[in-house]
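Exercise 3.2. Students should predict the tertiary structure of the chain below and write it as structure tokens, then compare their answer with the key that follows.

Predict this chain's 3D structure.
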Amino acid sequence: MEMNRLIGSKKVVEYGEFLRFSEKAGGMPRGTLISGEKTIPGYPKIARIFSLEGGIGKNVQSEEMLVEEKIDGYNVRALMHRNRLLCLSRGGYTDGFAEEKLSAEPGAGKFFSAHPEWMLCGEMVGNTPHTEPTEEYDVRYYVFDIVDERGEFIPPMERREICREFGLTPVPLVGVFRKEEIAKLKGAVRKMDKEGKEGVVIRGLGGEGGIVKFVTPSSDINDLKGNSTALFDMPMGFMKQRVFRSAVSIRDLGLKPADYEKRLGEALHCGFGEALDAKESVQRFRVRVNSHSTWDSILAGMGREVEVRVEEEKRWGKGYEITFVKAMKESTRRIRRAVEGHSQED
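Answer key:
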């Protein structure tokens, strides 16, 4: 009855053969897909903590915790559906780019041959439509969860062993800590902050152990730097949340605020010189694809808030390397109006 009420609402919409949950509804996470009797669960949100000691004390029940690196990529679920690999974004949209990349991964093929009803949950990084390009590698897929045929998460230590067994890449392990080892954990996170890493996911071991995430101040500042000129296209609260979070985490980790204040100011302003000269806010990306049909699927998945322009296309093996920009429409409109002298009532 609840499902019948939700179908056709803004929360549950038709999407090809599926019903897609565009928001959390009826106990189902955003990104859940339903096709007949099959339910593909969305990935639930992980609670964020701002203080390691206080946050762990209030949210993690187990005395022992597994701490893994939080990868700064984009969320991809992978599973077999109707005898083919299906990859899904956080919001439940099909992802042809990720399907092409994971189809070429021997580890993923071996895993799904052994567990055709299971689902991988991971972060994809590198030369993707959503992450900063790199020369070190093409793309990497870091597995942070595995869901079995009952919709249950595989325990974290077992999940890491499964990744090793099939040649999948697990998210990097920071370590196993006891609650009384908060000082040691803070030391590990301070090192990650210095290295520019995003943060950690903390899971209690055994039973209902609890799970939380903690982000480093450097990650928050880097987010601000990468999106400063796109502030009018970012979700409400994007800027102020990261300014606040970085301030709290600097204090919690015992870092020196003066070391971050200049970086924060530069992050908020550094991109505007180029943006004002060009009269637009753009972000650059690069992908390597086997066919133009994969590139077409990337374009189809872009949001309406961006305009995509190809800067360069060249051969890459038997496929193509495409460098492109996303022009942020609303931020570009505001920048152009300001530079061209239009007035605005505040």
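Discussion points: The domain at 1-42 is CATH 3.10.450 (Nuclear Transport Factor 2; Chain: A,). The chain has a mean pLDDT of 94.
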